[in-house]
Amino acid sequence: MVPTAIRTGPVTGLRRAGSQTAVPCWYMRGGTSKGPFFRAEDLPREPAARDAVLLAAMGSPDPRQIDGMGGAHPLTSKAGIVSRSQRPGVDLEFLFAQVQPGNTTVDTTANCGNMLAAVVPFAIESGLHVPDGEATTARVLTLNTGMVAEITVPTPAGAAGRYVEYGGDTSIDGVPGTSAGVVIGFLDTAGSVCSSLLPTGNLRDSVSVDGVGPVKVTCIDNGQPLVIVAAAALERTGREPVSTLNADTELKARLEALRLSCGELMGLGNVAGKNYPKMTLVSSPQHGGTIATRSFIPHVCHESIGVLAAVTVGTAAILPGTVANSLAVLPPGDRRGVSVEHPGGQFAVQLELDSTDPTRVTKSALIRTARLIMAGDVMIPASVLPVPAEPSEEQDL
Fold first, then answer.
1. What is the pTM of this model?
2. For residues 292-317, b (16+ Cβ closer than 10 Å) or e, as one string?
3. CA–CA distance from 137 to each of 17, 96, 146 (Å)?
4. Domain boundaries, the chain
5. Rounded mean pLDDT of 320-329?
6. Rounded CA gap, 95 and 64, in Å?
7. In degrees rounded to 5, what are phi and psi of residue 310?
8. What does the pLDDT read at residue 111?
9. CATH number of the domain at 4-181+370-381, please?
């Protein structure tokens, strides 16, 4: 295997393509999500213009995203924007964008740990970062929330130089086959969007809304704002198939009512148009794990669970007094290997606690996989993104 970026040649700059504009694009899978990645320099700086390009690239607003690269599902309607960083101690800056298939929403306020797994491979493929050994570690700042992670990917030497190795024996639930492991170490993720780990100040809150309540919930943010509620409190088992939960209109209405109320309690304001907080049903583990989950993102039940949602649920599971803790089966010690059960299998998270403060998580780490699927250009109508200057004849497609 040789480096993809060397084999194909990194594409640089916008180009005229008849009535369209060609934008350099690398289509990546990160964990159980996928979507196009862009270098920040290739997109408009102004947010509205940038978002218009992302919508056109994905094919939104259309539920099928038939006129773009999106996969007609929130997990496959994501994008990443990456640049080199000038900040001390940071190598790369990552802006995650969640595009909704059926509307014009482009949300850049939350994190995505799955897409984060693809940042360093993308940066190497696109020429933004130079591999420096058999394994390359880069410190990545997620601009959405200020979260910093150290990410390590294998970069062996080939005939044309070092390259990203995608083949390996690491498997993750929700992705077929095996791949090379991408190690992500999160640094201080508490209060990623909210003001703190426990934004209401409580390990549990009692919430009543029309048709629901009072219901005990845990409002928590250790990388992803979540509202955790026992499935039994909503007359469910927490073991229902995803298709059953997605067809359960009564449950989804109750969850949304709770979500809107808890969003206010968490200091997030009116979250009706936001992708967070996400709702997570928990129950006792059934397959040898720590805690069982059904995660809503926020209106569709996840086929598995998001990376940072798993970190946050795992955190709740080890904190005495939370809704999750009362149902969890925990290993002993200050270092906890938590396994979060989900519809597609299990998600392992390593958590370390402060020995002097049992409510403070000092470190969280996990392994994901990633793969480059396509490298080239995505075509954007010139009415959305005109080429700034008339290209040369050699550049014209």
1. 0.75
2. bbbbbbbeebbbbbbbbbbbbbbbbb
3. 37, 20, 19
4. 4-181+370-381, 205-367
5. 95
6. 25
7. -65, -40
8. 87
9. 3.10.310.10
